[in-house]
What we know:
Structural class: mainly alpha
Amino acid sequence: MAEPETTSFRALLRQYRLAAGLSQEALAEKARLSRRAISDLERGARRAPYATTVEMLADALQLPTDDRRRFERSVDRHRGPQSGAGPRAVAALRTPGHLPPPPSALVGRESEIAEVTRLFRGRSRLLTLTGPAGVGKTHLALVVAAQLAGESADGAMFIDLTPIRDPSAVLPAIAAALGLAESGAGSMIEWLQMWLLDRSTLLVLDNFEQVLPAAVELGELLGACPGLSLLLTSREPVHLRAEQAFHVPPLALADPLHLPPLVELEQVAAVALFLERARAQVRGFALNRENGRTVLELCIGLDGLPLAIELAAARIAVLSPEMILERLRDQLTLLRWQAQDLPERQQSLRAAIAWSYELLAVEEQGLLRILGVFAGGFSVNAAEAVAAAAGMGGSDVLGELASLVDKNLVLSEETGGAERRFRLLETIREYALEELARQDERRAAEQAHAAYYTALAERAEPELTGRAQRAWLVLLEGEQENLRAALRCLSDGRESEQALRLAAALEHFWTTFGFQDEGRSWLERVLAEAPEAAPEIRAKALAVLGELLILTGDRERAHRVLADALALARSLGDRTIVVRSVVHLGRLAVQSKQWEEANQLLEEGLAGALEAGDAWWAAFAHLQLAALASRQGQREQSEQLLQEALAEFTAIDESHSIVGLG
Length: 662
């Protein structure tokens, strides 16, 4: 393919492309350039390319040695603008931006620094650091960029998008950081593509979550500029095909139930950060046996968020760790730092979270507020039910929940079961509750939450004495913080009758997990608050309280409460509560060695349970009769009754109830 040496680069490019049977799109894909770049080079609308671009094109075209040399010699080595290269011809220089040094040492992030750096060196050209407010995305980005700057021929540049809310202003902000004055000729994207085409540059774009639509233009820049790399910080991924998202987790914590030695505790990432920042306030601050656990609990209460930990440590000059922990309930107010070199949104945790909240759609804000009423996590079904009852019935709760997870405002967690769990960091939850109160929505949301968990407990109750009990007990165990929150809401709101229903429905929950004292306390409280509750509700609550009093060792009071429950149940004709009450009274009589009374009561309970077809209470009555026979020295009869109880419990897949119930 002999060509005169004067043949232009653009003509050769077109000729070699056609000879290879490639379209502009196909060549662009093989050379890792944009179609626009190929088109502009063939039309002469760009300056002569850099050697790296020519090499990429020659490789893509698979040119033999002679053609490759001719192709390379055709490039104008002056590298000035070609005809029609308007934006480059008139672009002027201005003072460029820079890569600011990290504000301080990055504590506890050694693995994250290594991994993000590895991803870039592994040819990732678009990496997004995601995570919730205060997790330290910007700090990590600056440290990584500082390490990588020397590996890019044209260095690294930091672009703070904090003041920008209009996506169309992102490209001008990049141009300004590069030191380019806007020419007004040609489009901004073309202008930047030509400037960056043959440069090797790392751009760090901070706070990209507020200008997400601009991601499309970033994709075009990446396609046209093979030497360009982008490191973004964003609450959520930008969802480009070239993107690799890296979730920045909270700092590592330790288990307070298995406190490590002080020398190891000081190396725990969250604690190490607290120590470093505290020592900047009080020289010589150190961990000891007294404050070590407190500092760890403080870091746990702050979710391991670096910003929150730094703001708390800034208080160490006036508050001890114990005092800070004591005030942690009002953490959004406590955690404020008037450091002049911090952006306003990072001078308090509230401002940092508000920054993320304000970027949400109205529906997402509403759902996030409602999710604040959940304690200890929630399921999709719970979120949908509570949101609907709280006034969001027409909303796409599932879609909005997925969006909040994507934005790192809600955490999604594996449970090992079929259903995922979700939760809010406590700092975000507190903000959500504040917003609920500010919008005058908190009471309605808490009532919807309490209604859902009351219904859940009542639905679970009959299943807790049968074959499905294991699954239901696991479910209730996972929801125990929500159940407690529901009880507090109902009691505080003087909705005592519903509180009685919920507390009584949790009978087997209280006893199975060893929460007898807590259950007793709740039932005593709400019974006192609800003297006018429906008699059938009071009768059941009294019977459950009587059992819990037996288990907590208050036999005398248990007898009085169970006698009241029995009298009320007999007057109502409630056979279920009669059976429950007489069996527990018989149990008390056994313990008091009142053999005749015990036998009469237990036989009555057994007959009533058999008549009602209640297998669990029949088995339990047989178990108590076995205990009675044993206490009277009737070993053979006791063994027979025990075998009957075991067979009955086994028939309903509850043989483990034998243990500890005698």
